[in-house]
Every structure is written in structure tokens, then in C-alpha cells.
Amino acid sequence: MFIIPGKHQEQGLSYNPFKACVLPRPIAWISTQSAEGICNLAPYSFFNAFSDDPAIIGVGIAPDSREEGVKDTLQNILETKEFVFNLVSWEQRTAMNESSKPAPADVDEFEAAGLEKLSCNFIKPYRVKGAPVHFECKLFKTVDLPENDAGEHYTLVLGEVLGIHIEEAYLTDGMVDATKMQPLARLGYQDYAVVKEVVQLVRPTA
């Protein structure tokens, strides 16, 4: 079956298969702070790492359905140039989902989701207590992606990682242990996956 993106219904599919075919996708649970000091927390599944020297991560943020058209996360990053990536574990799946609920800009999603805050070393936004990993990030640049038929566009946010917090309980022999963290990943539709098993493939030499 050959599908043209955005034309899936014309080809007999009720839902767009694009995101269901790019899987599993890590979830960026992004915490920010407005210029006025209001905390914001929201999950994004268009996320990955793009460089390790320097350490660069990227998050794709959709346009907002509200009149101003910009999500609070993006607005805060543009204003302050800072944000935190919090890794979502299986244990925090419900809180992560709760923080995805649309809310006014003056609502603190940490409080709404019943989450505690941890301070950062280099930046003002708070970290999510209980998350296995946190990246303290500064904005590198934003890129406006192509507009859709409605004239809206996603924004790609690229951030440089200034520091990494890792809970020592999730380290084994000095290495991050994914089976201990059990990170949550996004699939298509309303589906998620959790990492409970890993396999090793040693890269062959030339």
C-alpha cells in the first residue's frame, strides 16, 4: 500500500499512519519557566538527539490551537532560552499524561499533575522529581518547518545540553541501565511502549 502523507482518508485509512510508522519515539517531558516565573511542563514525542559533541537535542513543537498560536513551552523557550528535558519512566506515565492536558498559561502543570520540583545547577526551570534523567538545556536555535494547508507550522527547537542529572540507582557498572529506568516511548495513535529488555549488537570492524 502506498500512502501520500495527509491523504490517508482518501486511501481508506481512518487515521494517519505516519507517527505509527516512526516508532518507538522517545518522549521529551519538557519543563520551562516563563519570564514571569510561571512553571510549565508538557510532553512531546517528536524528539531525539542529534549530536553528542556538543550534545544537542531537538524537539518538534506543534502550533497551538489557541488564538495566539504558540504553545506555552515554545513561548517560554523563546523568552528565556532555557528548558529541561525530563525522561519519562513507566512509573510516571500517568503524571506525564496528566501534564499533556491543555491549560491556560498561568497554570503550573507541576502542581496540576501532583509533581514535585527539583532545582537545576545552571538554569532557572525546574526538573521533575522522580524522573530518572534530566538534561539542563540552553536554546541553540529554532527552525520554522514548512506550513501545512492551514498555514500552520511546527517549530523545531534545538537545545545544547549544559548538564545531565542521572539517578545513581539507574546505573550498572558505570553505565545507564535502561531496564532499571524502564523509559516510556510513544507509538502511534494512543499507544505507548516501555523498555524492559535490551539486546547487544557489537558494531563490526572495517
TrEMBL record:
One of its GO terms (molecular function) is oxidoreductase activity. The keyword Iron-sulfur does not apply. Residues 20-178 form the Flavin reductase like domain. Signal peptide: none annotated. Its EC number is 1.5.1.-. Keywords: Oxidoreductase. It is an enzyme of class 1 (oxidoreductase). The keyword Oxidoreductase applies. PANTHER family: BLR2425 PROTEIN, FLAVIN REDUCTASE LIKE DOMAIN-CONTAINING PROTEIN. This is Flavin reductase family protein. It comes from Kiloniella antarctica.
